Amino acid sequence: METAETGEEFGPWLARQLKLAGKTQAELAEELGLTRAAVSAWITGRSTPRPTVMADIANALGTDLGTVHTRTTDTQAGLPVTWYHRPGYPDGGRELGNAAAFAFDADVQVLARETCQNSLDERLTGNGRPVRVRYTLHELTGEHLDAFRDAILWNDLFPHYAAVSERTGNQKVGRVVDAGVRDMYEKGRLVLLRVDDYNASGLTGDDYADGKFAAVVRRQLESLKSGRSAGGSYGLGKATLWATSALGLVLVNSTLSVPHEGRTERRVIGRLELPWREVEGRPWAGPAWFGRPDPDSPGAEVARSWWADEETVARLHLSRENDEPGTSFLIVGAHDVASLEAGVSDLDDESVEEEGDEDTRDIRRMHRRLVQALGRDFWAALTGGGGRLPLLEVSVRALRNDGEVVVEETNVDPSVEQPSRTRALRAFYEGTTVDRLTEAGQVALRNVPLKLPLSGGSSGGTSGIHQAVLLVTEAAGDTDRPINQVHSLRGNRMTVKKATVPRLPLGTNPFQAVLLAGEAAGEAAPFAEEAEEFLRAAEPPEHDRWGQTEELTLRWSPSAYRRIEGLTKEVNNAVRELVARPRRSSREGGEALRKALTVKNRPKAKVPTGPVIPVLHGLDATIGDAGEWRISAEVTIPRGDEIVPMVPVALLDVRSGGRPKLDWAELVGVEGCEVRDGTLRFAPGVRRATFRGATDVTSHPVRTALTRLVVELRAGKGE
User: Distance from first CA to last CA of the chain, Å, rounded?
Assistant: First the structure.
């Protein structure tokens, strides 16, 4: 009886090897000089071959004895790895690109956000360790480029790229692909961007049935995340991988946390995204897969993943550094179009290539932009404290032709990228927060309520009140910019929302704030799971804000987003209270000053008699999630014994003719005034007042984003 088994069970493994080799059970039995019943018994698991027969089986399959003993890889006999292109649709339909990829720009910072979020979502939590993510920029030239093109069977792909180039026309995808191919040939280079994660689940599951592998490699708009606090929910994030490739090509090598077909290491496949094309008179639908022909498919044409050897993954630049579960994605022909808008002012002169600002494949610049994005969006996941490990470790490096280091590996340090917020989060983890800021370096904590709505379409009622955690601390110098912002996040610790606090008191010291909501608020926070689910549903595909979404409307109600507005109001009020400078009494600190100075008394100014007119002094306006104008206004009031009531009027600024008037959906006095019947009425003796309002979207004649707002104060009627 064979006892040296370390991989897949013998029967299923042998059955697949026979398919790959194109042999039947009867043919194998004949070569071994045995009966077909004996081979059938091996296949079904009723028996196993004697050790002396194992060598004969290896010879019949064209492999070595060790491969048959361990069964951790397929034999190299049978159908070779190749490209399978999806045939054109019989009904003549054409897809000129993957629509999901159009949701994102060719931007390495967007790529960093989406891929790092996916790695966080797939972190293995049982061991308590962080998920480790490494970004490698790798420029290939000369013989290194030639060797890589041979490894991906470039000569087989080139006719398809040529067909796309010939039909570029007004096709966006075609123009991008054509430019990517021309850059490779004209400049003799190719940029690879590899994203490796470790201590993650890997692409588990069958090639075609439901599972993580099929969701990423085979399907669109499918999200199969491991945890409730996962960042993604639309299945769009993976499209950034192909959007960042000017050639539409991504290769994958996954080490699985759960064995598939009896093994875990070096599960490899490639996917190509091209528009519809015609090659040698035959139409092709768009996508293609790089793998081993599936013997179960008609004619063995469809390519499936295969278990590659170490030499193959090395030639494909997909080698992983250890056997920890996780996935390596290799973006072939990476480019960063968005870097043209970002400019190069933050880089040293040495890092700018001769192409200057127009080079979207400058690996130094891409390195810097990746570090910036990762520090900005994932500082909280990178932060630990109080005996708590961070959720994430991440680094970025840049290489050229295997041996040359262009930029040393940079470990993203949250205390460098986000010093104030990192200090605040560590204080929360370590239990060293205070109720109010009185000294430099302190972190103030305040709980703010999120009133969760009832699900099922009810517009009223509250299912529970979640207490989110607000942390406020002083900004750490000139490098901590922009100041006076709140970064909001939930369970996966990725920054979702960044917002500046409005209507701060004059002279407020620069600060930074963090809002921990959902499961990020801690295990003891009430209704944390419900808040996590609610806020996740309130995120759009970009995961960069909380507001009105279709899912929020369908699962709760059309007005559910107003609960988030209520949370924002509570947060801003709490921040303003925490950062306000405490008022000193008239005697505090004044006795010594009075002894040192002699002040002549001046006669009091005469107060004017009669009514005075308040003046609009300052106005902040933003566009709300529903398309409404949301304003915050400050009014100054001359000294007088009677203040005239005023009516705020919202108008649209137009080039000619009268300005259309908008209705108010909300008008509220904040300080020094109150609103009655649409009129501001001021408290006696006040010199300054503030109010806020929101326009009624139904009164807008055109879309808000295309307009400018004018607010006037007009004298109203008295009592």
Answer: 103
